[in-house]
């Protein structure tokens, strides 16, 4: 592969699609809960299940939001010492942080699969009037963590590819912390663009 970063194209495409789907799902939940509240106040009736559906959507969208946040380099990191280091020490710390996150995400993905498999094995359904088969929301929830793990793996491989070519700056641009100036420039660059053209 001539360009190590080209392997991230599919990951970024899936992440962008999940952002839109998750956003619309959350808006749908807000609408559903709003309608349910209005019906309770005005007619004294309830649609039922709005809170349960919202819980599923929140869990699923949270799992899918983690890799998107990682790709945007928006996870909170303490950079008091980091900002004072040179390029190569920063890259070493970036790779160490990515490796630590990979350990955590692999553990989360493993346990998410265990929960999903138990629901499939025992034919679990929710203890509510909706009686939702638990494997349905849990499959989407697990898929979010699995995509998170794949995103981490892709970032690691792409970063290693850059390192083998001596492209330290490319690694920093891919997994490093945005400086205040970079964040300001990005926001100013997005300010005048239509929503669909803004940096994902």
* Low-pLDDT sequence parts: none
> What is the CA-atom radius of gyration, in angstroms?
21 Å
String of helices and strands: HHHHHH
| Count of DSSP strands | 0
Shape: globular
Q: Please, how many helices? A: 6
The main β sheet shows up as: none
- The class by helix and strand makeup works out as mainly alpha
Q: Averaging pLDDT over every residue, what do you get?
A: 89
**Domain module tally:** 1
Report the portion of residues in β strands: under 5%
Separation, N- and C-terminal Cα atoms? 25 Å
Helix content: over 70%
Description:
It is a single chain. The chain is an all-alpha fold and 200 residues long. It has one domain. Helix content is 71%, strand content 0%. The chain has 6 helices and no strands. Helix 1 runs antiparallel to helix 2. It is globular and about 65 Å long. It starts with 8 loop residues before the first helix and ends in a 9-residue tail after the last helix. The mean pLDDT is 89.
Architecture blueprint of SSEs:
Blueprint: H1 9-42, H2 50-71, H3 87-122, H4 135-164, H5 168-175, H6 180-191
Helix pairs in contact: 1-2, 2-4, 3-4, 3-5, 4-5
Which key features would you list for this structure?
cell inner membrane, transport, DctQ, 71% helix, transmembrane transporter activity, globular, 200 residues, mainly alpha
